[in-house]
Design brief:
Layout (H helix, E strand, L loop, with lengths): L6 E7 L15 E2 L2 E2 H11 L5 E6 L4 H11 L4 E6 L4 H9 L7 E6 L7 H11 L4 E7 L6 E2 L5 E3 L7 E10 H10 L7 H7 L5 E4 L10 H15 L1
Parallel strand pairs: 1-4, 1-6, 4-5, 7-11
Antiparallel strand pairs: 2-3, 6-10, 7-10, 8-9
Length: 228
Amino acid sequence: MINQKKVGAVIVAAGRGERMGGVDKMFAQIAGKPVLARVVSVFEACSLIDQIVIVLGEQNLERGKKLVAEEGWSKVTDVCPGGKLRQDSVAAGLGRLKDCHWVVIHDGARPLVTAASIEAGLEAAKETGAAVAAVPVADTIKVAADDRFVQSTPPRRSLWAVQTPQVFRSDIITEAYRKIRVEVTDDASAVERMGYRVKLYMGSYDNIKITTANDLALAEVIWQKHGA
C-alpha cells in the first residue's frame, strides 16, 4: 500500500520567469503570501507526503532557505540549486530524496494545487507506477506547419492538457532521468520514452501555471474565490 511506503515531493521552482516583466514569480504575492509558500504549504499539510525538496535558481537559494525557516516547514529537508533545463532541476531534486518509494513532482508556479490532487495522483499511480494530472482540452486544436497552414484537426475528445502533480515510482522516474538524452517538457515524457504506461487522472482547471502577470492576477481571483 502507498501509505506504508515513503513519499517524497520535488517542488521545481528554478525557472527565470522571463515573461513576468522583471517580477520573480516564486516570491510574488497571492493573498499576502509568496507563490512558493502557497505551494509548499499544501505539500507540508498533506498527510501522505513524508519529505519535500525545493529546487530553486541560484539567485533564490538564500531567500528560499529563509522562507523555509520562517514558515517552519518540518518536511522540507533540502533547498537545492536547479540546472539549465527543467529536467536538470528535477534530476537535482530527485538526488536529494532519501529512501522514497514514490515521488510527486510539482511545478512551483502552480500555487493552486490541492491535497486532494496529490492524493488522487498517488492512487492513480498504483496502476502502472506513473500518473499525471490533466484536464480535457476545451478548445479545438489545429496542427500547423511552419508556414502556419493547417495540416490537421485532431479529435478534441482525445486531447488532454497536462499539469502537475506528476507521480512516479521512484525507480521509474530515476531511471528515466538517468537515461534521457533529449529535452522534454514534462516528467511523463521522459517516462514514456522508457516504454512505461502513464495514467492520466483528472486535474483541475483552477490549477493554473503562473507564466505572466495576468496569470498571477487570475490566481489571486481564484484563491479569493476558493482557496481562502
